[in-house]
Amino acid sequence: MGLRQAYTLFAPLYDALVGPAFGEARRKSLAHLPPSAGKILISGIGTGLDAPYLPAGPLCVGVDLTAAMLKRARRRASAIDLVQGDAQKLPFGDQSFDHVVLHLILAVVPDPNAALREAARVVQTGGLILIFDKFLRRDQRAPLRRLASPWLGRIATHTDRVFEDMLAGVPSLAVIEDRADRVNGYFRRISLKRLPD
Ligand SMILES: C[S@@+](CC[C@H](N)C(=O)[O-])C[C@H]1O[C@@H](n2cnc3c(N)ncnc32)[C@H](O)[C@@H]1O
Predict the structure, then answer these.
(1) Is the CB of 33 within 6 Å of ligand 1?
(2) DSSP string computed for 67-82
């Protein structure tokens, strides 16, 4: 089973399983978005659980691989433009968004370096990339998470991703803030700024 099929099966349960746990983290992450932001991309939008925490003004576009997740996002957030697509190969031009949101997607996609590179490509210079996800530290042992990751990664999410490894591949991004969130800092809220080339 691939990720698309897995998330098609999870879709009816996703809000009940994931919704209550992360509301506060979403609110804190999205509080970085200025109300004056012109256009925001949510890459891997899922069922649209970020929608209630977005500022009122900006135009928002959401991309996701799975039609069943997008169907729920459409019900929740009719004002968001929704596109079925791949976060690792975004169907948008360079610098076409003011800010990009990557919540619970870098640990999911097979190639997180590509997903981060694509976010950096489509965001304008000076724009923010807001990340909320679970990451191991490079030297962290976490044997169970490392052992489970190849299996869990095929059907839901990897559990052994190292954010610093992804960031090293995208020199045009600078860390503005990196906060420990849930589970002793396994979950983190990270804000990046797109630097000039
Ligand atoms: C853990 S959910 C996160 C959803 C949402 N961002 C949230 O914070 O609740 C992962 C989402 O990534 C989507 N997904 C998986 N692979 C993808 C890809 N290559 N491109 C875009 N979305 C993808 C899944 O369909 C699912 O909706």
Answers:
(1) no
(2) HHHHHHHHHH-TTSEE
Residue to mutate, 17, 40, 103, 105, ligand 1, most ligand atoms under 8 Å from C-beta: 105
pLDDT per residue over 97-119, tens digit each? 999 999 999 999 999 999 999 99
pTM, whole model, 2 decimals?
A: 0.97
CA of 69 to the centre of ligand 1 (A): 8
Ligand 1 centre and the CA of 78: distance in Å? 18
Helix (H, G, I), strand (E, B) or coil at 48: coil
**pLDDT (tens digit, 9 = 90+) per residue, 21-77?**
999 999 999 999 988 878 999 999 999 999 999 998 789 999 999 999 999 999 999
- CATH code: domain of residue 108: 3.40.50.150
Query: What range defines the domain where residue 121 resides?
Result: 3-194
Cα first-last separation, the chain: 39
